[in-house]
Every structure is written in C-alpha cells, then in structure tokens.
Amino acid sequence: MIYTEEMRASQARVEATRSIRLSETLPRFTAEEKDVLLKQFHPDYHEDGFTRLSVGPNKGDQVPSELAVLLQGQSRMDEADVDVDHIQFETDVLVIGGGGAGAAAAIEAARHGAKVLMVTKLRLGDANTGMAEGGIQAADKEHDSPAAHYLDAMGGGHYKNIPELLSELVLRGPEAIQWLSSLGVLFDKERDGAMVTTHGGGTSYKRMHACGDYTGAEIMRVLRDEVRNAGVDVIEYSPAVELLLDGDGQAAGAVLYDFDTKEYHIVRAKSVILAAGGAGRLHYQGFPTSNHYGSTADGLVMAYRAGVPLLYAGAIQYHPTGAAYPPQIYGALVTEKVRSLDAMLVNKDGDAFLHPLETRDVVAAAIIRECQERNKGVYALHGQAVWLDTPMVDILHGEGTMEKRLPAMIHMYEKFGIDIRKQPILVYPTLHYQNGGICIGAKSETKIPGLYAAGEDVGGIHGKNRLMGNSLLDIIVFGRIAGTEAAAYSEQAHPGKGNLDHVRRFDEERAAAGITEKVLSPKLLPDYTHNRGTRG
Amino acid sequence: MKMVTVYLLGKMFSVPEDLTIMRAMEYSGFRLVRGCGCRSGFCGACAVVYRLKGQTETHSALACQTKVEDGMCVGRLESFPIKKMEYDMEDLPVAGNVVGQLYPEIYNCIHCNACTRNCPQGIQVMKYIALAQKGDYAGCAKESFRCVCCNICAASCPAKISHGPVGLLARRLMGKYIAKKSRHLEDRVKAIQEGKYIADVQRLMEADDDELRRLYEGRTIEK
To answer: Tell me, what DSSP letter sits at residue A445?
Structure first.
C-alpha cells in the first residue's frame, strides 16, 4: 500500500501487459540510434553542467562544474600551520584510501615485503566497493576469451579506452578471480564447481561472476580481513589532504588531517598509492547518487594539484536504475543484475521501451527520454520515473530465483513494505561512477616518480562508459599491480625531504587566472546538515 | 509534512516523520563523520540503539535504513570493540575445528537469542554460531552470508562472542578450501600464463577505430 494511487493505477497496466512481454524480445539500438539518444539525453552532453578548467594540467578541458570548483579550489595548507619536517609516520609504501583498490594494493605490497601504511578518511572498507552488488567480469568460460572481453569494453567505452590498460584488465581478469577465490571469496558456483555467470549490459558472453547480490560487500569484507592479517598499519578517520613531493619532484609522502583531533600529521613514504575513490557525493547536475558518503573526488584533487593530468574527467556514469521511490532509499542502487535476470524496463502504460541489456549510458539516456520527452513516466518524488518489472525474474527463472540471487534487493525494499517478487519498482538514473580520472600507465604509475594510482580515481581503463562488472575487476587488477610496483619502487627509492612547493605553485597559477574563490579542497565530506542535499 | 519529536544523542529535535534516523540527525544539524558510511545498508557503519516512548525494551538498527518514530530516543553503537584473530589463510587446517579454536568463546553461548533478535539483516545469528560450534562451515557460511558487520550482535551478547568475525572466517574457509574448484578458471589462468590469448588481444590493440567498430557491431551475443 506504500505506492500512491497514480502508481497503483500504472502498476495495474504493467501487470496487464506482463504476460505478453514475457515472450517479447526488443531489438537492440543501432549505433546511429545510440549516438542520437546519448547526445540528446545523456547528462554528459548537457553543456550547462560543465565548466572549462582555467588552471592545472587539464587547463581548457571541460569537467562537471562541481568538480571544477574543487580541482581549482584552495588548499588547506594555505592557512594551516603545518611543519613538513615534523614527521609522525614513516613507511615504505603509503596507501591513500581504504576501499577495494587500496586494500588489494596494501595486501600485495605487504606480501612483497614492504612496510605498508594505509590511511583512510572513514573506516577500512568504507568505499563504493562494498556497495557494488551485481558482479565482476572475467573471461574464464570455455567459449569466452579475453579478446571478446576487450571488444565488449571497447565498444561500451566508445572506443576511447586506453589499449594498454584495457589489455591488462582483460588478460589479468581470470587471475583476479582466482586470487579472490584463494582469499576465500564465496563466488556463486554450480554443483561441479563451475562459476555461475550471467550477462551484463553490453557483454557478448556470460562472464559476470557474483556472490548473490552482495558481490562487492563480500569482496570488501574479505579484503578488509586480509589487510588486518597482512600486518598493514591502518589509520582510520585520517584522510590525506595533500601529497608531499621532494626537491626532484618525486613522491615523498602526504599530509593527513585527523578528523577527531583536528591535527595535521606528516607521513614520509618512499612510494605512494592514490586509491581514494569516486565522486558521486558531488551530486553533479543535482542527481542523487548510489555512492558512499566519502565519494568526494579527493584523489583527483590531490593528484591534479601535484601536476598529474586527468583523463576523461567529464565522462560520468549514471546508473540507469537508482531507486526513485520510496524516499528513504532515493538514489540507492538497484543492481543491473535484475536486468541480467531478464526484468524489463517499462513505462507508465506498461510498454517496454528498450532492450534491457544495452550499456548503462544508453539505458540511462533512454529512461530520461521516456520521462522528459515522451512524458511516459510515473510521477515519483522529484519527477517522473519508470518501472523495473522485477516479478518477471521469478516467472522466467522459477520461484526462489530472486531469493537466491537478489537477497539484498528483496531486503532493501521489504523494509518499506514492497515485495519486489510481487510488485515492480520505480527507478530513475542515479550518479554512480566516475569513468575518468588520474592518468596512469600499465604499471599503475603516474607521471610523478613513486606515485601510483588505482581504483575509481583512475581514468582510461573504461573509456567514456564502463560496463557492469569491470570496476570490481579493475580495483583488483590495478590495485594489485600498484601494490607490487610501489613495493618494488620503494626498495630502491631514497626520496629527499618532502615539501609543498607544488601547492604554492598551484596557488600562484590560481591567482594568475583570477580565481579568488575560497572553497577548500579536497572536500572530504558532503554537507547535508539542515536538509541540504535532501535529494541525495 | 507531519513532524515527530525525537531525542538524538540526548537532545530533543522535531523532524519530518518520513526521514531515516540518519537523515533526521542531518536535518537537525549534525555533520556526520563517524557512524555514517554507504547510506544503503551494506557497510554496517551506522548501528544505533533506540528506545521507544513508554517502552522498557531497547532496539538496535542501522540508522540509514530505519525510519524515525515519535518519541524515539537514539544512541550510537559505532566502533564497538570486537575480537578479531589474526591468521594465515594459507596455513589453516580445515579438519578439526579451527574456528572454534580461534574463537573458543562461541561455546559459551547461552542460547538467549539476543543476537538473532537484534540483527538488522534478519540473519539467524545464534543458528550460525551453533553451526560454527559443530564445525559446519558450509552451514555457517550460508546462514551468515548477508552479514554487514555492524556488530549489533556482539554488542548484545552476554557471552561476549564476536559473531561477525566467526561467520567471516567460516565463509573464507568455505570459499578457499571447501567449495569445489572451478576447472574452467584454473585452465584459463594457465592458458593465459602460457601466452595463448595474448596475440588476439594484441590484434585488437592495433586495430583502428573503424575496424573495432565493425568487429563490435558484428559480434555475436551468447544466448
């Protein structure tokens, strides 16, 4: 009874068309149809949402306005009284970020014998990784191949993926699954041990491995446990706020800000790994987000200020199916796995309007068109939304399928009186993933010697649009590479005294460009007090 | 909008009735640092304890997943200290009951069922502890699978059991040692190490955009 009268009337139409739709297969869009759809309706093409950068290595590039303010923001170091020579912590490898990429990096670096310090803004494991529900791709089934995986990702990414990075991703994919299995991650398997795999949007073979719909949560809690076992020192609630470089421009550590004591601390390190995550909490163009509380682009800001260029920072992923109702879960992720299991997207009249397994950017744009141009959505909280016809899953695959494969989704909705096995749910795109980020090479290295990056703060692997299941894969593949490389580098590195000269240089550039805004960055946390950001 | 009166960390506030406890704190002016994580019920950061008006009993919940009620009195549980043993996964005996050896306090369970009653995920916590006592890792793994490690169970346990790490170790043993190996995975990793798939990928790396587009649009999709 939680749905409004209008919703219930529309729900009845969805139920009336369901039996016909069960045997209906919609054609996929042609390349031309997709181009037109994206240009008209994808938020990345919405010029008003973007600002051209006037300072830094990407000067002249357009990025989301909320990100531009931070990339060109003011450093905390300008006003804080920080003595960079007063060193509180010394380590071989400093890992900035306690999510999946940071954890994978820390584990590998420790296994290679390095002394590892992980610093994280919130708790170890607080990251988007744990909220990834649907799965992780890897070409390990008989008829599938790394080349097929490569082609799928390249087409989905609009042919903008960096070949050297994508080849690492696909060729190391099966090994990443094996590594996770060896740590004890509980993948869904058939009786004979074969992995249960499904399609994701834009895949040509069923290569989505999953742990129910807790895939990321399962991976994250195992990695967190292993970080603790591996003897890695972890400092929580202490985000890095600035990198330190030595006189030759090599990585030399970082400045931390302790949330509890409000003090700054200096870490001296021989190599540094930036794995600070995404940016969903910046709420580009007013979108809600499926992201973790800490996703505020801190890694991008720190790298940019140190002179590291970004790649495709204007390419943002809006997950097509964010919860549009009820208000308590507004913007939360409804996993793509629901569509992998053949649930259709349906408008207010009960008509399906696209093949459910198009790539995410295309599906998001099609939903926005259905609501904004065609007026075929159902009014939800802040505008129209469309139905995801979840009961189709059990009808097509047998009763009990959802309970086994989508327990988190059932649990998320049942708390608010909606049984998704019996009732469809209302969805609308939600800000989900930063496709672009820090420029790296195939060894996870940046242009600064000794500075590595991995995870969502990196750009290029996924081109301009990531496929489902490729981010859980990239955090493992590149997290491990970064950990291994940073450990090896630290063995022969002797960085000089760390300094903040790059911050001063950036300040001068800001002044010369006439930027007088006092917005502090990295942002660290969103500001939701007194009902701000209630649509997030 | 109907407003309700709530007491957050001891202070009285009036908040809209459809807010979660977490949003109610923010609505009232709290800038959250601790006790806030994924905001979607997956991370276990926001465990709270509350008492309703006129009731003796206390309840536990995730603040991001629970609506406020009139007269609700909310305190926090975040950073509850738990016992987590350190171990080398490569060197754990599956035979015998290593979970029981590392966490012998599981045998002190007095069957009060407070853990199960308080679990915000609706997990049969006491049951999975009983399975762990018997060394039934598969059963323990299955029953504990939806755990988000909020530690509400541990906070309510008179026998001082840290349930979360017990379930986690059982699941890791299950995933690593007991679940059947995936032959296709091992074969594929070996084949890649032998260099079998590299040339195909390299051909694609060298292909121009037109060629990639042609291959992509023409690829067959597995039914």
So the answer is: B
- Answer whether A187's CB lies under 8 Å from A195's CB: yes
Residues of A in contact with B41 (CB under 8 A): 408, 411-412
Of the listed A172, A283, A339, A502, which one is catalytic? A339
pLDDT under 70 in chain A at which residues?
1, 533-536
Same structural domain, B63 and B38: yes
pLDDT tens figures, A17-41: 999 999 988 999 999 999 999 999 9
pLDDT digits (tens, 9 = 90+) for A321-349: 999 999 889 999 999 999 999 999 999 99
With beta carbons less than 8 A apart as the criterion, state whether A474 and A461 touch: yes
Decide: A213 and A407 in contact? Cβ < 8 Å: yes
My answer on whether B95 and B160 are in the same domain is yes
Chain mean position to CA A338: 19
Question: Which of helix, strand or coil describes residue A295?
Answer: coil
Q: Decide if B82 is inside a domain.
A: no
Taking an 8 Å cut-off on Cβ atoms, the answer to whether A174 and B204 are in contact is: no
β-pair type (A208-209, A197-198):
antiparallel
Q: What does the alpha-carbon distance between residue B139 and residue B166 come to, in Å, rounded to a whole number?
A: 12
Taking CB atoms within 8 Å and a gap of at least 24, the contacts of A366-374 are A366/A37, A366/A41, A366/A320, A367/A320, A367/A427, A367/A428, A367/A429, A368/A41, A368/A42, A368/A43, A368/A429, A369/A37, A369/A40, A369/A41, A371/A428, A372/A41, A373/A40, A373/A41, A374/A347
Prediction ipTM score: 0.97
- Give catalytic status of residue A149 as yes or no: no
At A536 the pLDDT is 47
Average pLDDT of the segment spanning B76-99 = 92
Please give the pLDDT value at position A328.
86
Same domain, A250 and A399: no
Cα A342–chain centre separation: 24
Give me the domain span that covers residue A168: 76-315+435-501
Domain total in chain A: 2
Q: How many CB pairs under 8 A join A and B?
A: 218
Q: Which of A175, A225, A534 sits opposite B168 (nearest CB)?
A: A225
Does residue A339 carry a catalytic annotation? yes
* Residue A493 within a domain: yes
